[in-house]
Structure formats: C-alpha cells, structure tokens
Write a structure and sequence with these properties.
Blueprint (H helix, E strand, L loop, with lengths): L2 H21 L36 H11 L18 H4 L6 E7 L7 H11 L3 H18 L10 E4 L4 H7 L2 H13 L2 E2 L3 E3 L10 H11 E3 L9 E9 L3 H12 L4 E10 L2
Helix pairs in contact: 5-7, 8-9
C-alpha cells in the first residue's frame, strides 16, 4: 500500500467514525440522556493525567456522582476508596493483607454512576467503558507502589468470569486487563479459567468461597512460576474469587502477588 492509498484509508475511517457519531451520538452510560463531558482524562479529577487522551463516559452531573463513589470513606481505615488498602475476609484467609480498588460499588443503588460503569462492562458493548476502566486501573496500580514500583517483567492477569456468562457476553475483564497491561507497561497473560455455570451475586459468603475453590483452575500451559503477578477483577465483595486465584498462583510458584479491582462493595 503506497502513501496515497494509506491516506485514502485513513480518510474513510475518519469519515465513517464521524458519520457514526453524528447518527448515533455518544450518551452518558448512567443517565443515557446527556452527552459525556469532554475528551480528556482531566474530566475525572482522580484520573488527571495530561499525557493521556481519554474519552469520557459520564455527563457532568453523573461524573460528580462517580467522584463521590471514588471518595467514599472506608469505615475501617477512614481513607477514601481510591486510597483504601483494606482486604475482605476472603482475601485475608489467603494471606492477602492489601487489596486496592478505584471506587466504591453500592449494590443498593443500581442507578448510580459506579453501578452503571460496572453494568456497561459486564454487558460487553461499550468500548469507551472498557477504556475508561483500564485507565482507572492503570492509575491505581501506579499509585499503589506494589513491587517497589518496578513492574518490568511483571504479569497482569484477571479473575475470570463464569463459563455461562462468558459465553453469553464475553469476559469483560479480559479486555480491561489486556489494555491495562499495555498502559502500565507489563505483560498480559490469560492465567485462570472459571468453570462455574452460575451467578455469584445470588450466593452467600460460604457458597461463593466453595464455588470459587471448586471451579477456578490454572489454564494448561500458563506458567507463573517465579514471576510477579498482578490479578485484577471488577468488584471485590467477599474476596472469594480473588482468594482462590491467589492460592492457585502461589501453589504454582508465583514469587509475588498483588490484587486490584475496579471497586469494592460498600459494607
């Protein structure tokens, strides 16, 4: 393809994107009425990063609600959600003392901005939400200072979705983890598999832990021996799923393990 052909392809891609935006304008993923604010990462105060361009997913009003979820104070450590390092019991049982998240997820407020972001990811239809979530994780990983801030050679992976929902909707955290690994500058590897056919949200703490321990396993061919591992998830509730992943990785010889999530469920 010569220079003229490349310019022609670039023009048609730009034109198609512009026409699509005109016919189907982007809407706030929360209220579905207003257009998202701006096109910069500076739209979200906790994510301010002049080096990156990030398309917004919230309108101004819903963005304020989302920032409230990010600043919600943890009742245990009295720090805002984006600084909290408290690990739930399911993770502490696996020897994990610190669990990092970006905002608080309130299950009783389905109309909240934080819930809308999680639902948009789970439905697997909003690429802007995936991009937004990956940037949130990127910032949280860098601010955490895990592994002494040296992520060279580290592997970023994710806690997999159950087999049934993964077939229906795809695995949203795989897409988020792949992009987050690229943004952070470490390797991505698909380490775990989840054979569970059901929904965790309908189960109690004991059922969650039993299901996670019996259905999650390391993929054939995945090698984490002697490596530093970053495991990410969408929401930490009991910590059972991530705890099972941590135990499997430790048994497989992982040298160091750090746990991250987009959100922690409000207690």
């Amino acid at each position: 393809m010569d220079k003229r052909d490349r310019r022609r392809v670039t023009f048609f891609r730009w034109a198609r994107r512009a026409v699509g935006e005109y016919l189907y304008p982007a809407r706030c993923i929360c209220c579905r009425e207003k257009r998202p604010e701006g096109g910069s990462a500076a739209d979200y105060a906790m994510l301010a990063d002049p080096d990156s361009r990030l398309r917004g997913v919230f309108c101004a009003e819903c963005l304020r609600d989302f920032e409230r979820s990010c600043g919600a104070v943890c009742k245990r450590c009295r720090r805002p959600a984006y600084e909290c390092e408290c690990a739930p019991d399911g993770l502490r049982a696996s020897g994990v003392r610190r669990a990092y998240a970006c905002f608080t997820y309130e299950r009783g407020r389905r109309e909240s901005a934080s819930s809308s972001l999680i639902f948009s990811l789970k439905n697997g239809k909003n690429r802007d939400a995936v991009n937004y979530a990956a940037h949130l994780l990127r910032r949280r990983i860098r601010l955490s200072g895990v592994f002494g801030g040296d992520l060279a050679g580290a592997v970023l992976t994710y806690a997999p979705r159950g087999r049934k929902n993964s077939r229906l909707y795809g695995d949203h955290m795989m897409r988020v983890a792949e992009l987050a690994a690229e943004l952070v500058g470490c390797e991505f590897e698909d380490v775990f598999e989840n054979a569970s056919p059901g929904e965790q949200k309908k189960r109690g703490l004991y059922e969650r832990e039993h299901d996670a321990r019996s259905s999650i396993y390391i993929r054939p061919g995945a090698d984490v021996s002697g490596r530093r591992l970053l495991i990410v998830d969408d929401v930490i509730t009991s910590g059972a799923t991530l705890g099972a992943c941590v135990d499997l990785a430790r048994d497989a010889g992982a040298r160091e393990i750090a746990v991250f999530a987009l959100a922690k469920t409000a207690r």
